[in-house]
Write a structure and sequence with these properties.
alpha+beta; Immunoglobulin-like; Arc Repressor Mutant, subunit A; 2 domains; 5-stranded antiparallel sheet; 26% helix; 40% strand
Amino acid sequence: MDGKLLFFVVILSIISVPQMVKATNIEYYESLVNLNSSIADYTLTFVFSKPPTGEFEYPLQFHIDNLKTTSNFKNYTCVPESESWGTLIKCDFSRATKEGRAISIMFDTKDNIKKYDNVFYFSTRISVPENVSRMTIKAVLDKGFVLIEKSNEPTALIPFLPKDGHEGSDGRHIYIVWERDNLEKGDVVDVSISYERIIPETNDNYLFPLIGILILITALITWAKVKKQAPSNSEISVLMEDEKRVIDILKEHNGMCKQRDLVKETDFSKAKVSRLVKDLELRGVIRSEKTGRTKNIYLNIKL
């Protein structure tokens, strides 16, 4: 009886212990990080050699925020556990469906970026959680940032490490890429980047109110000009007899007629009509618009 009891206890203990993803190697691992002046935005992508099972753990030597995941399989969980040394991401694949093998883990952190004078310094340690056939590390600088220039001074900062990284640009962002093959569980790659800002930072908290103020000022100026130009009824009442004649003709023509028609219908000379139009326009009663060899005369107010 004692032997059978011991046998069942051993079997039960084996079943109860969570199984790690130790039999599943990683075909491809990509560590992508986007950098600005204060936040490192990570996307870690793992493509397993077969659908993952059991538990998968990934240690990070810094604290993280905003953990999210996406994958081509379902029924799994990934949670961050804060530790004194950083963060442990724990994924449970024990109930995961078997149709996919890829998962991306996204998060951000402020722990990896430091500023020295005008230079931003990013550093991180990329850990290899399982045997990896191929790994890509890519760091992308936000728009407006560039790598610092290389210097021969022995104490100067280096644009990036490891030195075998390949620098490139997509026209808007500068990036550095490192590639590694046939890594073993426990291997690490230490990455550092020194960069600086070349385009000044804009603060949207001030930009939008400023735009609103400018729009309001423009509207007030426009309103003041219109009010100044628009004639009042008192101005109309003090028009001279000849000026009233011009206004009456414009009213008969629904507020617009050609200046040569004013000459015909008023029986005034061209010079007199031209003077009357000029005086009325200066006072804002009418406005004129050049069309060919004559002018269109418009009544500014509805009488």
